Amino acid sequence: MNTASMVKDARILIVDDEPSVVLLLERLLQHEGYTNVVSTTDPLLAQPLFASFGPDLFLLDVNMPGLDGFGVMSQLGRCTVRGVHAPTMIITADVTPEVKRRALIAGVDDFLTKPVVMTELLMRVRCLLEARFSQLAQRELVAV
């Protein structure tokens, strides 16, 4: 399977408490050809969904009621799927330096602010997924 088809088949998990944001991200990704997108508006479901779905990419909001994005990240620990780090992208309207600092400390791989520029989001999603699949391929070569 080539990298382009692997990227389009990637498992993407979206966690955002705003249904309109979730719907927008789902539609955008599906329109771009991503076929394996799962989402929730309940941050308390993030950990079990992550464990059962095994995403290749995790899109996460920060400011959510009950359990914020940093709490979700704390629950997940090292976001590892199939032995390789699954990248996490924070998508938030909170642009304060404190949130960016906490995101970096939490190990977030990318950070986008709302409102999201759709072409930028798609480019970053593709780049993160290509890097992940490259790491998976290297790991498989080493194992052989």
Short recap of the structure:
The chain has 144 residues and is an alpha/beta fold. The chain is built from six helices and seven strands; from the N terminus they run αβαβαβαβββαβα.
Structural description of this entry:
- The two termini are 18 Å apart.
- The model has no long low-confidence stretch (mean pLDDT 90).
- The protein is built from 6 helices and 7 strands, in the order H-E-H-E-H-E-H-E-E-E-H-E-H.
- The chain is an alpha/beta fold.
- Helix 5 links the parallel strand 6 and strand 7.
- 49% of the residues lie in helices and 19% in strands.
- Strands 2-1-3-6-7 form a 5-stranded parallel beta sheet, sandwiched between helices.
- It has a single domain, classed as Rossmann fold.
Write the layout of secondary structure elements.
Layout: H1 3-8, E1 11-15, H2 19-31, E2 36-40, H3 46-53, E3 57-60, H4 69-76, E4 80-81, E5 84-85, E6 88-92, H5 97-106, E7 110-113, H6 118-143
Parallel strand pairs: 1-2, 1-3, 3-6, 6-7
Antiparallel strand pairs: 4-5
